[in-house]
Amino acid sequence: MPQLLEKVAPLFQKYPSPISVATRMAQFVVESGAGQSPLYQKSFNGFGIKASPPWQGPKVQHSSLEDDGKAQPSYFRKYDSLEASIKDHASFFTSTPYRRDVAYKKAIEAGTYQEEAQALTGIYAGDPNYGDKLIQVIELYQLTQYDLAQASAPWQPQIIDRRDQALGGQAYDRPRSAIKTIVWHYTAVPRKYQRKIWDHEQYWKNQKGWDRGGYHYYIDSQGVLYHNYNLERITWGVADHNGDTVHISLEANSKTDYSPEQIKTRDWITRQLMAELAIPASQVKGHWEVNNNTACPGYNQAEMDAFRKALALPPKNPNCKPASSPTVQPDSYLIWQGIKYQLVPVND
């Protein structure tokens, strides 16, 4: 067992989560029998996560012991590797507003692994001894040692998965191989109004008659990333060019309205998509470069070229915290990737 845990620890450290590495590793041991359970053997599901929304991936049927003590057949998430299971589990606790703000709020706000473990009892699992079992595993194998190494894990923004709530829902409209271009947008609404993606969806539905939204990914005024659609879903982002594009939008109305947090989050998700879809930096475009019917996202040609040049290079400091990435000067200007922007406070 110690050898197995030592082997998988870097995977838990790789994917940040509001729940500690120690507690998540203990869940793997308890939920999957350290990879020996029948469910894990046929699905790589190391955490007993059911195929509940917003999950859109493969699933497998398996009998599970419910709160009434009876075994009932249920559908569980199926993965192609242990790493994929660990990655999904890391973000599971914040994958919906209910999970983040209600179900797992106490666990997320816990200050110790003991508090985390007990907060998961009766919520993540119905077993009244679930927390005690996690604590026993953590202490037996000294799993907190892996929390100390987590400081080197790459930064990522707060992500909210709302694919089960997005306007029009999900559908398989295209293969991922059809996607050739990543398109940047702004919403054309001043950031200080602090609108949310659902406000825009209401406008699209009621005023434009759209059956779906425009953006696969949306970044709100605070830099929080909202995942709206699977990549296989075609959205209404750029007229006449939606079949081969994926869309990222920021809540702002000009290039001078973007916040440092928004810019950093956009850089992060753009790089993720470039890697996942094998899209070169040269194919990251502003809306107007794909269809010149708008000034969106507000950058001129030289500025977009500068962003593409920066995206072609590795991130300068992938482990930095959000506040330390861009350089903010005393005169309220932001220097980001060699380009200077005037900052407009969100609460103006």
Helical percent range? 25-40%
Strand runs, count:
11
Q: How big a fraction of the residues is strand?
A: 5-15%
- The unreliable regions are 317-348
Order of helices and strands: HHHEEHHHHHHEEHEEEHEHHEEE
Describe the global form: elongated
Distance between the termini: 56 Å
Provide mean pLDDT, rounded: 88
Main sheet overview: 6 strands, mixed
Helix-and-strand structural type: alpha/beta
Strand order of the largest sheet: 3-6-5-7-4-8
Q: What Rg is obtained from the alpha carbons, in whole angstroms?
A: 22 Å
Number of helices: 13
Can you walk me through this structure?
- The chain is of the alpha/beta class.
- It is elongated, with a radius of gyration of 22 Å.
- Helix 2 packs across helix 8 and helix 7 (113-120) runs antiparallel to helix 8 (130-140).
- The protein has helices at residues 2-14, 21-32, 38-43, 82-92, 97-103, 105-108, 113-120, 130-140, 144-148, 197-208, 260-277, 287-290, 301-311; strands at 59-65, 71-77, 159-161, 181-186, 217-219, 225-227, 245-250, 284-286, 327-329, 333-336, 339-342.
- The model is unreliable at 317-348 (pLDDT under 50).
- The protein contains 13 helices and eleven strands.
